[in-house]
Amino acid sequence: MSFPKGGKQSNITKEKIRNTLKQRYNNDEEKRKLSLRFGTGTKGYKYSKESREKQRQAKKDKYLGENNPNWRGGISDNPYPQDWTEYLREGIRQRDGYICQICGIHESELKCKIKKLHVHHIESRTVGGNAPNNLITLCDKCHSKFHDGKIGLKNKRGKTFKAETYMSTVKKMMIDRLRELYNNVEETFGYLTKEKRLSFGLEKSHFNDAFCIANGENQSRCLVRNLSQKRKNNRCLQISRKKNGISIRKQRYLIQPKDLVRFEGKEYVSCGSQHYGEYVVVFINGKKKSIKTKNIEQTFHFGTFVFN
Fold this sequence. Notes:
- There is one protein chain.
- The longest helix is centred in the middle third of the chain and has 20 residues, at about 160-180.
- A hairpin with a 2-residue loop joins strand 6 (about 280-285) and strand 7 (about 285-290).
- The protein contains 8 helices and 9 strands.
- It folds into 4 domains: about 1-40, no CATH class; about 80-165, no CATH class; about 190-225, no CATH class; about 235-305, SH3 type barrels.
- It has helices spanning about 10-25, 30-40, 50-60, 85-95, 140-145, 160-180, 190-200, 205-215, and strands at about 120, 135-140, 225-230, 260-265, 265-275, 280-285, 285-290, 300, 305.
- It is elongated.
- The protein is of the alpha+beta class.
- The N and C termini lie far apart (about 100 Å).
- Helix 4 crosses helix 6.
- The chain is about 30% helix and about 15% strand.
């Protein structure tokens, strides 16, 4: 039976075709032939344990190692570096708020045996390493689905959280070691410290936070000493003003930034030198002022760290 290409059949013709096909394929033998022809003979069929074991053994070594299309030279067998520690992973979990960055489930809501979120490398560890901005928190299901290619990861390697992760890592390490030595070690959190600091009417600072964490009330306060780092060589100054390369500093002047100088009986912090070291820049009454180097009465030099 042939029909013109693109032609439309009437309802009577369609009914005749339907009845003819029913009569032709309304027996088990014709159905079996169709299933073998179109490859649907195993659909819904349950194999026995022996058959499944035979199939498993047949495919066991077929896609193993170099035979696997995803083989990359065995880089997954390389050992993790020494900086891949539990303290680092705990710091990443704390940074992400103990929440999976794909599905948003909290670590306390996990139903697996080990209720702990995984730490995943955004870029492979051979490329991005264990840098904190290359790590992200995922739950077990999302982590498995990602590596199976079922879901994608929208997160890209972001800005570094080196300082935050370092503090989280050091904090957990310190708490663990202190708990090994003492029985009365407790962990506090920022929102509790803030609540207590506001009740005392104290401004935000490191020493005020330390006072609140130590359950301070009306004790006498100690003096505050600030410690800052001093750069021995500012590489930004080596950039040529004409933007045609690097301008190497061939001379280091006597008075460097953050050195303490005495002028007219008062002490000032140096901001740098001018005019090939003939002048020193200091702040006087909130304004920059240039002083001749020969008029400086005394100079106090600092190393890498400055106490004030």
